Amino acid sequence: MYVASVSLSSCGGCHNALFLTGEPLIALLCDHNISFSTYMVDQGAVSPSDVVLVTGCARNQEELAIAGEVARVTRKVIAVGSCAVYGGVPGLETASRPPGGEKDAELPRMLDSVLPIDSLMEVEVYLPGCPPPPNLIFEALKSVLESYSHASFDGTVCSECSRGVEHKAVKAWSHHPGFGVPSMTCLLNRGFLCLGPVTRGG
After folding, report:
1. Around Cβ 112, how many Cβ atoms within 10 Å?
2. Residues 56-93: tens digit of each pLDDT
3. Terminus of the chain with fewer CB atoms < 10 Å: N or C?
4. What's the mean per-residue pLDDT of the chain?
5. For 182-197, b where at least 16 C-beta lie within 10 A, e where not — what string?
């Protein structure tokens, strides 16, 4: 199969997380062909591919054109990272058109709003995170290449936490648990601030 990776408007952290997978990624790709990669292949155009990992979101006309080409020549897309899935940090700001932006041949014209990947193409797997953990990116790619169901993380960190939850009143709160918290004790129940209830699982 032909595998590609495309980076749109992003910091590059999700591609870095992909590369941190290391030898398992190399072993997986040895059985397939890299048709295009923003960071690995010296080539200007997106080639036809079976699977494309897309990081970032469409922020300007150039990225919109690249996303359109990916949608045209790709069978399956994996949206990697919060920018690709939701619009991420670039989506926090809605740009106004810079003066003379359309006449400037060197700068692509900014879009009125950031476009997450699934507004431009069909997405097979969503991997939110900033960046997603390398093992999740690897497993998603492997699941698509080898045609098996990828684990879906629709719950919170609390829903998969092994510490358990007791429903009791907390008298005082602290910012840092420090050392000595029993491994099977819920941090919230011990009065430590934990973002598990508002953090996506995985």
Report:
1. 9
2. 999 889 999 999 999 999 999 999 998 898 888 777 76
3. N
4. 83
5. eeeebbbbbebebebe
The CA–CA distances, whole Å, from 4 to 32, 82, 90, 161 equal 10, 19, 23, 34
- What is the pLDDT averaged over residues 109-116? 83
The mean pLDDT of 168-191, rounded to a whole number, is 73
Phi then psi dihedrals of residue 90, to 5 deg: -60, -25
Phi then psi for residue 43, to 5 deg, are -155, 140
How many residues does the structure list for the chain?
A: 202
* Strand duo 58-60 + 74-80: pairing: unpaired
Residue located via tokens 């079976």: 50
Got the DSSP string for the chain? Answer: -EEEEEE-BS-SHHHHHHHTT-HHHHHHHTTSEEEEETTT---SSPPPEEEEEEESBEEEHHHHHHHHHHHHHEEEEEEESHHHHH-TGGGGSPPPPPTTTTT-TTSPPEEEEEE-GGGTS--SEEE-SSSPPHHHHHHHHHHHHTT-PPPP--SBHHHH-TT-------S--BS---S---TTS-TTTTTB---GGGSB--
The one-letter amino acid at 193 = L
Give this prediction's pTM: 0.71
